[in-house]
Design a protein that fits this description.
With about 55 residues, the chain is mostly helical. The protein is about 95% helix and about 0% strand. The chain is built from one helix and no strands.
């Protein structure tokens, strides 16, 4: 019966390891998405400024 805690401990490590991997991945992807969104907004702001300058 010594194999039960070993099996459950291994399963626990696998579950927590997988959860940590996806948590880190999710936070990394959110930061990457925010940077891309900020770059797009900056480009739109610049384009709007150029259009406004050309209209004057």
């Amino acid at each position: 019966m010594i194999w039960v805690p070993i099996l459950l401990g291994t399963f626990k490590l696998a579950v927590f390891g997988t959860g940590m991997f996806f948590a880190i991945k999710w936070h990394y992807d959110q930061g990457k998405k925010k940077k891309e969104e900020d770059a797009r907004r900056a480009a739109e702001r610049t384009a709007a400024e150029v259009a406004r300058a050309e209209a004057e």
